[in-house]
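Priority: low. Protein: Palmitoyltransferase. Input follows.
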Amino acid sequence: MRNERNGNSRDILRRWCSGQSNALAIPERRKFRRVHGLQLPLHPQQVTGWIVILIIVVNTFAILTPLLEPNLRPVFSIVIAAIFLTHICSHLTVLLLDPADPRVRSQPTNKVLPEFDRQKHSHVIENGRCHLCNITTESKRTKHCSICNKCIVRFDHHCKWLNNCIGARNYRAFLVCLISAILASLFVAGLSVTELSFSLFTDRFASPSMENNTTDPVIPFIAPASDTTLIIAISAIGILSAIVAILLLHLCFFHGYIACLGLTTYEYVRNKREKNSVAAAVAIAAAATAAAAAAAAAASTAASTASGTATSAVTTTAATAPTSVATTTVTTVAENASTITIQR
Ligand SMILES: [Zn+2]
Ligand SMILES: [Zn+2]
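Result:
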């Protein structure tokens, strides 16, 4: 009975926080298209992101800003509150804006999409026609997201942190969300370092009101905490914010880079995969050619003791076989590369 109850709890948790595994995919997710990022099932990374945001916001206003000098506190509080608010608004915008093709959005959300049948079609989108959404796409950059089960205009990527696709319609909001998160995490990390520096060099925190001001309504909240507790708490917030800032800065630079190239994330990854496949094919071909040369040389040496006719036959066979293997290998890898390219 208890095991059954635990099993039900796990099922409920799995429904709420499902991963990307097809084995765990619930029927709702495969039959219908996802409309927005708050639609169930939530993704574990999405929930983790919310928890990190909550920890940083709460600790900023509960610990970091109260430790500031009273005359600095309002300015810093307003600035960081504005950055947090911008991030939360853009975060919600990216989550709730449906980046699907307008013709997909005009269809009812409870429309059951067919399962993709590889026996009938090689790809989901062929000649500009999506076999699942039953629409004709306007651009080659429109891709069918298998997780959201819908066609996305100028598909960039499916973001697990936002549990939504990023496409033409919500890309700007995504950039605002990303930049505001970087600003917030850098601001909080900087504030943490400043507070720790004060405690290290002056043996007390920045706010003089920590010692004897009992009229300040903000200070009593953190006054009972010892300096050691505050140092540990501030260090933890600073490290968490710094890690978030580093990861997001990397992502931001990447998006700046692909913007300069005029590519989406999907196109960049696809091109890179294609280049890797071609490079692998060239390496295999070079190895096969070297093997052919070695075999030909060996055959030539062996045949030098035999008759002239036999020498010619052996050499030709030995040289041709590895070369044809190399050619076949190159062709196969190149075909695989093109399959990867147009798989969606
Ligand atoms: Zn589609
Ligand atoms: Zn998606």
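The longest helix spans residues 265-303. Confidence is low (pLDDT under 50) at residues 10-29, 310-344.
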